[in-house]
Recover the amino acids of this structure.
């Protein structure tokens, strides 16, 4: 029996009409083929079609977002701001904790589509989608995708949203049980882009996180954040996490600093302590 979905050709055929095993291939092809524009109206309809398969609605949203379409960004923001989980919730799960990671998939496309958004003049919609995703960073798991996506935005444009998201995340850690995803690591992840424009606040929020979770796993993430810092406070936090986390965290911090191209940005006791 054939597939009865009327929109199947939109997602499961390439631009020459050949069958595709997965819409992932279509998304990639659309980045280099302007014939993707012919699919946009139909895919927008799929995203909004409550009778459509949830997985197909997710793929339609991923395609539109990856192609830098304003409608795709609006769909991401709507999914984040919805009263309940989106229809595709749970169709993709984190391999470490089995928590839903569909918002991570969307965040990845929002980040990867920065060049397409610039080309199409949809950057403002893209930034709004990022802000909407940040607004749920204390409630939804993103893996490393949201932090990576934030690096594609002007740091000053999302700095206030990052700070607010981190503070909500810290408040959430004050309540047990914690969410099923790795919230402490996710807080660090979104703080990293903040270092560029407001290092003191980023480090202060990281210190608040360490007060709530001194697990070596979390401290390893904090080590990468600390390594990007240039202030005395960053160096002091580095010393603290090493004292608590031991050799493994020390190695992580050293490796992160080596990759950055240097050691601490100030000399310790007995040296010429100064801020860069």
């Amino acid at each position: 029996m054939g597939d009865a979905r009327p929109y199947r050709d939109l997602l499961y055929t390439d631009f020459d009409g050949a069958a595709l095993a997965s819409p992932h291939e279509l998304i990639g092809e659309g980045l280099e083929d302007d014939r993707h524009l012919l699919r946009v109206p139909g895919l927008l309809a799929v995203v909004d079609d409550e009778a459509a398969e949830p997985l197909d609605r997710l793929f339609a949203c991923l395609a539109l977002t990856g192609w830098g379409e304003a409608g795709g960004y609006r769909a991401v923001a709507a999914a984040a701001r919805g009263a309940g989980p989106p229809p595709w919730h749970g169709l993709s799960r984190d391999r470490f904790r089995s928590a839903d990671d569909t918002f991570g998939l969307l965040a990845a496309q929002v980040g990867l589509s920065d060049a397409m958004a610039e080309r199409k003049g949809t950057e403002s919609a893209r930034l709004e989608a990022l802000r909407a995703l940040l607004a749920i960073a204390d409630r939804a798991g993103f893996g490393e995708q949201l932090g990576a996506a934030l690096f594609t935005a002007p740091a000053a444009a999302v700095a206030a949203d990052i700070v607010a998201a981190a503070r909500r995340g810290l408040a959430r850690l004050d309540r047990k049980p914690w969410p099923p995803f790795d919230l402490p690591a996710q807080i660090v992840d979104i703080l990293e882009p903040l270092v560029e424009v407001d290092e003191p606040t980023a480090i202060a929020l990281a210190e608040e996180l360490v007060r709530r979770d001194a697990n070596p796993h979390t401290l390893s993430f904090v080590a990468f954040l600390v390594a990007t810092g240039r202030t005395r406070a960053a160096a002091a936090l580095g010393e603290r996490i090493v004292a608590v986390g031991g050799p493994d965290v020390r190695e992580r911090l050293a490796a992160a600093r080596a990759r950055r191209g240097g050691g601490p940005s100030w000399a310790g006791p007995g040296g010429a302590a100064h801020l860069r």
